[in-house]
Amino acid sequence: MTDPVPSHVIRPRAYIVGIFFAIIICALTPFNNVVRGATPLGGGYFPLAPFYILVWMTVLTTLARRIFPGRIPMTGLELIFAWMLMVLVAGIAYTGFARTFFINITAPLYFGANEPGWQATLSPLLSDALFPKDQAAVDMLYNGIEGGRNMGWLALAAAVPWKAWIRPFLSWGLFMICAYFMLLCLVNLINRQATTNERMNFPLLILPKMMEQAVDENRVGSFFANRFLLAGIAIPVFLHGLNGLNFYFPWVPQINTLALAGSYFPKQGLFAGFVKLKLYFYPAFIGFAYLASKQVSFSFWFFFLAGALFTGILQVTGNSFPASELGITFGPTLSRPEETQMIGAFIVFFFFLVWLARFYMKEVAEHAFFVKHGPTPCVHERTDRMVFWGTLLAFFILVAWFMFHGMTFVAAVVLLVFSLMFMMVATRVVCQGGVTYFTLTVAPLDAINTLMGLRIFSDIGLLVAGVTQKVMFVDLRESVMPSILHTHRVARQSRSHVTIAGAVFFSMVICLMVSAVAMILVCYRYGIRELSLDWATRTTVSVYNNIVPLLHDAPGQGDSIRMFALVGAVIMAALLVCYQRFYWWPLHPIGYLMVYSSAMKILWLSFFIGWIFNTLCLRYGGVALYKRMRYFFVGFIMGDFLMGGTFAIIGFFTQTGYQVLPG
Q1: Helix (H, G, I), strand (E, B), or coil: what is residue 100?
Q2: Tens digit of pLDDT for each residue in 166-200?
Q3: Residue 653 in this model has a pLDDT that exceeds 70
Q4: DSSP output for 429-453
Q5: pTM given for the model
Q6: DSSP for 532-563?
């Protein structure tokens, strides 16, 4: 018999297993996603591949404990920590970095000749340190190496013109590593406030924590045999089993998971905002919505529908504004002036978070500056000091990086402050709301433009700001920041905080390199033009098309934009006051932050269904029924992800793959 493993200990094997599978996921993701077009292995904040691996690791751990009594291959905490290391870096290999990175830095050279104004305006501003200048190397990236599809991967690697990429890799590598280090320190800085002081709910961690508890209590068998769980799993298994067969064999019938409801609404009038309404049915998202708090899930779908209705009200009352009022924008989905309410809403909500943490931040500052309040030091004093100065160090290294590449000090500070502001608010929405798929409506540069204009940027500074925003700060579907906070919540009971932070940073750096190499090999083998990268190409080209007129004094924003930003700030302030003062208040402010997010177009129905069942269970069955039904909705999540993983494996051996979850 071996001694039991203390509940707070994470042994080296958990780090090794987590980092090993993280590297494998990052190496395979580009091929799976852009060549096979299968369900993304690392999409969103509850990615497919890590959870699929977690389920099988849980099963194998249970079998090993039965075969070798007394031995504990991995505890529940170790399993969930290894899973979290995979989740943390899974997005780097796709939308979090690799999906758009190479297109971002090569688009001016490849598309410059065909896009009006690019060569005359952009070419003089392109730094050799940030943008590759070897035309042949870039052409091969888009067209593929001749005969590359018939080469082995090692032969292909030998044929890649690596010399053309050395300087851009070094410059961007420094930027990405410093940015990751800053985010890691910043999350460590706010971690205790979110998890201990506010006791924030983390809906995305409920299912893994249930599995962890089952492992530690040695009841994995009864967990998977729960009849509510099996009933929940059966629904997505049947749904995707049938639709997956239809994908490969069209004569098999299918069940539609998407209904276009917009045709039932008039294009003009009160309901004009609903003309693009879609009804998506994703069992996993319904499961997450059930696990979220009732107030949050209600607020998400309520504000989404209210936002669509507001568009109709503006039209009916004659107060709608043309899209030309927006001027030049960088927001991923920003299309109507009223959507700029999110500028004011995000800023007010950020300062609300600062206000909530005012006493905690005072304590951290005292620790950072060695202010003593008694003979006994605080147990967090050393950690607070390290992460405080680490955040500032990384911040100013990034400022120096921007200044080296042509940006002024003020512009660099403003860009980073607004980017971090938006990322911190997004992290709160994801972690507290249980949102697996999040998109910004407005970009940090849109907020800067509205509040102070873009004249603080020089020409080259604006170019660098637009590209770095696209690389790191605007597409937050797979940002590392929420996953870092999830990791710290998972490992909260562990005492090895420095070791955990080191493992997280090492994982991000090594997987950044693996993802870059994996994507560049796929691009040189097939050519970007032949891959499923149309969205990445289109959005990157639009960034440069937006920058060019801004360098020629393009028309500014209309007055309505500042008005809507102010409206957003006032509405958010009112929501926060009501949320804080009235216990009966039904609306959570983070619901308003998602009102115009493209993610909510997919998720709103799932949150509505999850809220309905959550409400009915609590009202008519109490907490007991809610807990029993929780297994049913957890089964929705497990069934969707198990089918997604299965079809992803099938996709590796076929020419294409069936998508279980949105890409």
Answers
A1: helix
A2: 999 999 999 999 999 999 999 999 998 998 888 88
A3: yes
A4: HHHHHT-SS---SS-HHHHHHHHH-
A5: 0.94
A6: S-HHHHHHHHHHHHHHHHHTTT-----HHHHH
Rg, the chain, Cα only: 25
Q: How far apart are CA 486 and CA 432, in angstroms?
A: 10
| pLDDT tens for each residue of 407-441 | 999 999 999 999 999 999 999 999 999 999 888 99
User: Is 178 within 8 Å of 399 (Cβ atoms)?
Assistant: no
Residue 528 DSSP one-character state: G
Question: pLDDT band at 1, cuts 50/70/90?
Answer: very low
Q: Residue 516 in contact with residue 98, Cβ under 8 Å?
A: yes
Tokens found for residue 128 = 């050799």
The H or E element containing residue 280 is strand 278-280
With H, G, I as helix, E, B as strand and everything else as coil, classify residue 637: helix
Neighbours of 269 (CB within 10 A): 11
Rounded to 5 degrees, φ, ψ at 15 are -65, -45
Proportion of the chain in helix, strand, coil states, percent, rounded to 5: 70, 0, 30
Say which amino acid occupies 613.
F
Show Cβ contacts of residue 365 under 8 Å, excluding neighbours closer than 6 positions. Answer: 371, 388
In this predicted model, what pLDDT tens digit does every residue of 68-87 receive, in sequence order?
887 888 999 999 999 999 99
Task: Give dist(CA 442, CA 341) in Å, integer.
Answer: 9
Lowest mean pLDDT among 313-322, 335-344, 378-387, 463-472: 378-387
Of these ranges, 6-10, 326-330, 548-552, 605-609, the one predicted with the greatest mean pLDDT is 605-609
| Nearest of 84, 91, 41 to residue 211 by alpha carbon | 84
Contact 434, 296 (CB under 8 A): yes
- Neighbour-count burial for 7-46, b at 16+ CB within 10 Å, e otherwise: eeebeeebbebbbebbbebbbbbbbbbbbbbbbbbbbbbb
Q: What b/e readout covers 286-315, taking b as 16+ CB neighbours within 10 angstroms?
A: bbbbbbbbbebbbbbbbbbbbbbebbbebb
Tokens 């003593």 correspond to: 372
The two three-digit tokens of residue 391, written as one number: 């955040």
Contacts of 43 (CB under 8 A, 6+ apart): 91, 94, 95, 437, 477, 478, 661, 662, 663
235-248 average pLDDT score: 94
Q: How confident is the model at residue 663 (pLDDT cuts 50, 70, 90)?
A: low
Structure-block tokens of residue 49? 């591949």
Tell me how far apart the alpha carbons of residues 41 and 648 are, in angstroms, rounded to a whole number: 8
Residues in the chain: 663
Query: What gap in Å lies between CA 613 and CA 294, rounded to an integer?
Result: 10
